[in-house]
Amino acid sequence: QVQLVESGGGLVQAGGSLRLSCAASGRTFSNYAMGWFRQAPGKEREFVAVIERSGNIRYADSVKGRFTISRDNAKDTVYLQMNSLKPEDTAVYYCAAGSGWTNLRLTSAYDSWGQGTQVTVSS
Q1: Residue 64 φ then ψ, to 5°
Q2: How confident is the model at residue 8, as a pLDDT?
Q3: Quick check: 12 and 120 in contact, CB under 8 A?
């Protein structure tokens, strides 16, 4: 499995920005699709974005146009740039690594997960 460590969360006012990072180790990073998910209190973990091994990118409709996912295979790191943050973006954000090719919007497609980083957006 891949070991994943997220960083970059914090408290920000509505309209602000944060950049999350997820550093991977233990396996060949470029062999994995890398996803970001989030989980708000009392809610299920939901898909945010994924960047596939090919570089293809997909976003949840709720973040499209505001969030940008990217990866640096030389640094074994995936990023999530979050702009125009809203209070409803408040959640614990998780990165995940998946060795499959399909259903990458589903948590079941991922083999490894980070510990999560808290993002809180105040109104």
Answers
A1: -60, 130
A2: 97
A3: yes
pLDDT of 56-106, one tens digit each? 999 999 999 999 999 999 999 999 999 999 999 999 999 999 988 889 999
Name which of 117, 57, 121 is nearest 83 in CA terms: 121
Length of the chain: 123
- Is-contact 6 117, C-beta < 8 A? yes
**Token pair listed for 31:** 């062999």
Rounded-to-integer distance, Cα 55 and Cα 41, Å = 31
Three-class secondary structure of residue 30 per DSSP: helix
Over pLDDT 90: what percentage of the chain? 93
The proportion of the chain whose per-residue pLDDT surpasses 70, expressed as a percent, equals 100
Which of helix, strand or coil describes residue 88?
Answer: helix
- Positive or negative, the Cα torsion across 15, 61, 97, 115? positive
Sheet with 3-7: strands ordered across: 3-7, 18-25, 77-82, 67-72
Looking at residue 82, its amino acid is M
